[in-house]
Amino acid sequence: MFNIIYSEFLKLKKSYLFTTAVIASVFLPSIAFIVSLSNDYSGITSVLKYTLIKDYRANIEVNCFCFLYTVLFSLIAGYVFSREFADKTDNVIYTYPINRTKIFIGKLITLYIIISFIYILQFLAMYLSLCIAWHEFPSNNFIITDMKVNVYSLLMQFILVPIPILIANITKNIIFPVVYGVLGALSCMCAIAVGSVYSAIYMQFSPLMLPILPMYYFHAGDPIDFILTTISVVLTFSIFMFLSIYHYNKMDVN
Predict the structure, then answer these.
(1) Left if phi > 0, otherwise alpha if psi is -120 to 50, otherwise beta: which for 47?
(2) Which positions, given as ranges, span the membrane (predicted)?
């Protein structure tokens, strides 16, 4: 298994993927940092300052968890699982005396490592930029709560990843997973709009909203229907993971 993961990273090392991941991780924190530097916050009260810092963090996380990462992780999943078909090396790789399920799991672990790296880098970039822009480091409780939000959101991303993986396996290219990611980001935008107009509970009907729910729960205090979200998590992961592994083992090679 280690050799499979290691070989995947060697292949990714030669691609644009790591550069894209780093840029995407720091992009929104950098934009928020520039905007904060362009404003004059001198003379504001401590209460208002704390509110603005919370908004600074919330804006970055909403845009990352719901929009940017939906597209980015679909791109990465499509690349990891369709590269062999694009390079016409699938007939070589899948004739090795290695169980295809092991290859699938190795690729999945590689993908999970990349996603975790992006989350960690984004978290560090956000608080570094916040500290420089506001000349103040948030309290320990503030940071610990936000760490919980990011960990739970990361786990929800793990749940959703089998969807673009299945699309990449079926289509054997990177375009359709990216199209899925764009449409998913648009659906998240609509879900947030509906939730803001009516009730946040309506956002929980979409599995694609799972990564952002911890932010609303811990920071905004919005209630979560744990029965609904548990059913969504179990069904989404089990169905798409089963279909992904099944198709990966059954698909033909050139």
Answers:
(1) alpha
(2) 16-38, 58-81, 109-129, 149-167, 174-194, 226-248
Domains in the chain: boundaries: 2-250
Q: Which pair of tokens denotes residue 166?
A: 């299945």
Q: State the pLDDT confidence band at 200, using cuts at 50, 70 and 90.
A: low
Half-sphere exposure of 235 (CA within 13 A, CB side): 11
- Res. 171: pLDDT tops 80: yes
Q: What is the DSSP letter of 204?
A: G
Split at pLDDT 50, 70, 90, the class of 253 is low
**DSSP assignments along 5-44, one per residue:** HHHHHHHHHTSSHHHHHHHHHHHHHHHHHHHHHTS--TT-
138's torsion region: left (phi>0), alpha (psi -120 to 50) or beta? Answer: beta
Smallest CA-to-CA distance from 109 within 119, 117, 97 is with 117
pLDDT reading at 214 higher than 60 = yes
- Rounded Cα distance, 138 and 48, in Å: 14
Nearest residue to 8 via CA among 91, 82, 106: 106
Distance CA 197, CA 89 (A): 50
> What's the CA angle centered on 53, arms 52 and 59, to 5 degrees?
85
Rounded Cα distance, 242 and 15, in Å: 29
Nearest to 122 by CA among 151, 142, 93, 92: 151
